TrEMBL record:
This is Phosphoserine aminotransferase. It is found in: Cytoplasm. Belongs to the class-V pyridoxal-phosphate-dependent aminotransferase family. SerC subfamily. Pathway: Amino-acid biosynthesis; L-serine biosynthesis; L-serine from 3-phospho-D-glycerate: step 2/3; Cofactor biosynthesis; pyridoxine 5'-phosphate biosynthesis; pyridoxine 5'-phosphate from D-erythrose 4-phosphate: step 3/5. It comes from Undibacterium rivi. Pyridoxal 5'-phosphate binds at W104, T154, D178, Q201, N243, T244. The keyword Transferase applies. Binds 1 pyridoxal phosphate per subunit. Its main location: cytoplasm. Transmembrane segments: none annotated. It holds the Pfam family Aminotran_5.
């Protein structure tokens, strides 16, 4: 049987061990007689799952004690509205600064404009969203409420490999980072950010769960229009149990956190991700048959867009890849081409199989 490798951008591949454990526990979790799907979210069984998941995530990212971990719903797109609704009550007349680096930061800008005055401090539109604008070109507001970054653009394949220092220029504005598609793939300094958020369906678990990591002093500033279920202060005060949370998604996320610990933690995972990304980019750079258009210093380790020079071969490429067990390689409809998402759960063998296939396809179509 052909080994299947799923390169979907999200919902994305999960570790096989996690899926096997979830299958084994589907009908009876730890002798409780219940599936996790059937448990009361306030019962002792699920509370133990929730507590372990929060504890393991705090350990994996070395999250300081003055940050709250919230498990919410609404996805990354929903959080683009929830962020300004929670932060603009703190400084309602201040602008929000955005660095526009691709599709997702673009969506964030449109959503924030409903709740705040937006200043696009820098945009990569002129380079086709293939590079992060040079830091010295950013026109930051001296009194910004916060600075919003999408630190990995899932569609465009652009990733920040630095943490920008914005405090002096903005009067101490916190950085809000959408890390949906690369959280837990690399070591980060959580204390450099005021808020980190992300949908779980890339590196963490199934769709339906959104993570928010927020510094405590940024709680309690929600606008009156903010629904209570999305008010971070209320959610934090209730341990993410103000309303029924996405219980099964939290359970799967907890299993992924345990799996990450068994792999050696985030630092070990980062080393693996560097090896996988280097293998694929090195091949792309060695051939004229394919191309990656992202500036080398800004390339994402998680989402690798590429194009066939002869795009009339796209359909045949995808069909042949599928026949070889290489799935979900079609690029996003807004940019075309191909995209290989190589999240934590994608083994090195999967990237090796992809490169082997790409090399063979190129050799037979050149």
């Amino acid at each position: 049987m052909t080994t299947i490798y799923n390169f979907s951008a999200g919902p994305a591949v999960l570790p096989k061990e996690v899926l096997q454990q979830a299958a084994a526990e589907m009908l009876d979790w730890h002798g409780s007689g219940m599936s996790v799907m059937e448990m009361s979210h306030r019962g002792a069984e699920f509370m133990s799952i929730m507590d372990a998941a929060q504890r393991d995530l705090r350990d994996l990212l070395a999250i300081p004690e003055n940050y709250k971990i919230l498990f919410l719903q609404g996805g990354g797109l929903g959080e683009n509205a929830i962020v300004p609704m929670n932060l603009m009550g703190r400084r309602p007349d201040a602008p929000v600064d955005f660095i526009h680096t691709g599709s997702w930061s673009g969506k964030s800008i449109k959503e924030a404009q409903k709740y705040a005055t937006v200043n696009v401090a820098a945009s990569a539109a002129s380079n086709g969203f293939t590079a992060i604008p040079a830091r010295e070109s950013w026109q930051l507001s001296k009194d910004a409420a916060y600075v919003h970054l999408c630190t990995n653009e899932t569609i465009d394949g652009v990733e920040y490999h630095f943490v920008p220092d914005v405090a002096e220029q903005t009067g101490g504005a916190p950085i809000v980072a959408d890390m949906s598609s690369h959280i837990l793939s690399r070591v980060i300094d959580v204390s450099a950010y005021g808020v980190i958020f992300g949908g779980a369906q890339k590196n963490i678990g199934p769709a339906g769960l959104t993570l928010v990591i927020v510094r405590e002093d940024l709680l309690g500033h929600a606008l009156p229009v903010c629904p209570s279920a999305f008010d971070w202060k209320i959610v934090a005060d209730n341990g993410s149990m103000y309303n029924t949370p996405p219980t099964y998604a939290i359970y799967i996320a907890g299993l992924v956190f345990q799996w990450l610990k068994r792999q050696g933690g985030v630092a070990a995972m980062e080393a693996q991700n560097i090896a996988k990304a280097s293998l694929l980019y090195d091949y792309l750079d060695s051939t004229d048959f394919y191309e990656n258009r992202v500036a080398k210093e800004c390339r994402s380790r998680m989402n690798v867009p590429f194009f066939l020079k002869d795009e009339s071969l796209n359909a045949e490429f995808l069909a042949s890849a599928k026949a070889q067990g290489l799935l979900q390689l079609k690029g996003h409809k807004s940019v075309g081409g191909m995209r290989a998402s190589i999240y934590n759960a994608m083994p090195l063998a999967g990237v090796q199989a992809l490169v082997h296939f790409m090399r063979e396809f190129a050799s037979t179509h050149s």
